[in-house]
Amino acid sequence: MPFDHNRLIIGHRGAAGLIPENTLPSFIEAVRLGVDAVELDVHLCEDRLCVIHDADLARTTNGRGKVWNQSLQNLRLLDAGDGAQIPFLEEVFDVIPVHIGINVELKGRDTAAPLAKMLRQYPAAQVLVSSFNHAELERFRELAPDVPVAPLFDRWLGDPLAVAAKFCSRFINLGAKLVTPQRCRMLLDAQLQILVYTVNDPSLASKLFAIGVSGIFTDYPDRMTDLRGDRSPD
């Protein structure tokens, strides 16, 4: 599985710094640039998982309002950047080669059950599921216990180590500002693989890899190709 390796380069929302985020062209470009995995966000509209980061349409499309208040027909008419549609999750899975990992972030409410159901159609896909909404992540874990999960953190509150243990997770996804050598050692001692977002400076990526981080999420995969190094498992 790609996520079991070290020095991972993960395309954040595809190649979000180069091509409009969370669109099929963005994911295709990330793959072309040699990423080990891509990351994406899902919200539920009617009964379909749609790949978009924000609950509100205004920032990334020419639409207005909340994703879940749209009809699928209207949602698919929107321009998500350079003429691309908001993709359905299945469409992303269909264009990503099976050797490339996919980190699905449960961004919207009630996304756990439809994701667990959809993944049964893609048994060969190499998937990691993450979320800041740990209750939603727990629902997914109950429905798909064999799919790896990673709790997401943007603040060091409570006991992230205990949260990861609760999910029986081998992964933890952290904001870059949270990562210190001391915390990294603590997490590594607990046999956790640390994935860090969002890292667009190659020098910072090098420093993170040097202290034991397993992978970085980046908007600019083109800047990170020289950092991939050894593909051996941790």
Features of the shown structure:
234 residues, alpha/beta, TIM Barrel, 8-stranded parallel barrel, 28% helix
Would you give the CATH topology?
TIM Barrel
- Structural class computed from helices and strand pairing: alpha/beta
Share of residues in strands: 15-25%
The first-level CATH class name:
Alpha Beta
Q: Note the gap between the termini.
A: 11 Å
From N to C, what is the helix and strand string? EHEEHHEHEHEHEHEHE
- Global mean pLDDT: 96
Radius of gyration: 17 Å
Q: What do you see in this structure?
A:
- This protein has one domain: TIM Barrel (Alpha-Beta Barrel).
- The protein has 8 helices and 9 strands.
- The longest helix is centred in the middle third of the chain and has 10 residues.
- It is α/β, with parallel strands linked by helices and about 230 residues long.
- About 30% of the residues lie in helices and about 20% in strands.
- An 8-stranded parallel barrel has the order 1-2-4-5-6-7-8-9, surrounded by 5 helices.
- It starts with 7 loop residues before the first strand and ends in a 16-residue tail after the last strand.
Note the topology.
Layout: E1 8-12, H1 24-32, E2 37-45, E3 48-51, H2 72-77, H3 89-95, E4 101-106, H4 112-119, E5 127-131, H5 134-143, E6 149-153, H6 160-166, E7 171-175, H7 181-189, E8 193-197, H8 202-210, E9 215-218
Helix pairs in contact: 4-5
